[in-house]
TrEMBL record:
Family of this protein: Belongs to the anti-sigma-factor antagonist family.
Signal peptide: none
Highest taxon, organism lineage: Bacteria
Official protein name in the record: Anti-sigma factor antagonist
Residue ranges of the TM segments: none
Pfam families per the UniProt record, alphabetical: STAS (PF01740)
Organism field: Streptomyces ossamyceticus
Record domain STAS: where: 14-122
InterPro entries, sorted: Anti-sigma_ant, STAS_dom, STAS_dom_sf
Length: 122
């Protein structure tokens, strides 16, 4: 399996790491995703798409909070990924983050997996 670290970015409240897993890019945001930190996630996600990774797995196991701005980042990237023939898969959402997706109905437009491994195997 092709595996390599692509990069990482960090602010005081959000850290984002990106790695390649075969034909997928796995993006791991850790901390709080909100108005102040959204670009820290948007830029690496869009960078993965620009590099030709149409299949993105967002590892949410360390994402503690997500507001509407963070949700909009993910929705926007999902549209670009689908236009390129891929998609955005969310994995391992903590209950507080899953609730935001449930309340807004956004869970219906994403493929959600219990684990990153499950997301990569589909």
């Amino acid at each position: 399996m092709d595996r390599g670290t692509v990069g990482s970015a960090q602010s005081g409240r959000l850290r984002v790491e990106v790695r390649e897993e075969g034909a997928s890019a796995v993006v791991t945001p850790a901390g709080e995703l909100d108005h102040h930190t959204a670009d820290l996630l948007r830029e690496p996600l869009e960078g993965c798409l620009d590099k030709g990774f149409a299949r993105l797995v967002v590892d949410c196991t360390q994402l503690e909070f997500c507001d509407s701005t963070g949700l909009n980042v993910l929705l926007g990237v999902r549209l670009r990924a689908e236009a390129a023939g891929g998609g955005v898969h969310l994995a391992g959402m903590l209950p507080a983050v899953a609730r935001v997706f449930e309340i807004t109905g956004a869970e219906a437009v994403f493929t959600v997996h219990d684990t990153v491994e499950a997301a990569l195997s589909t």
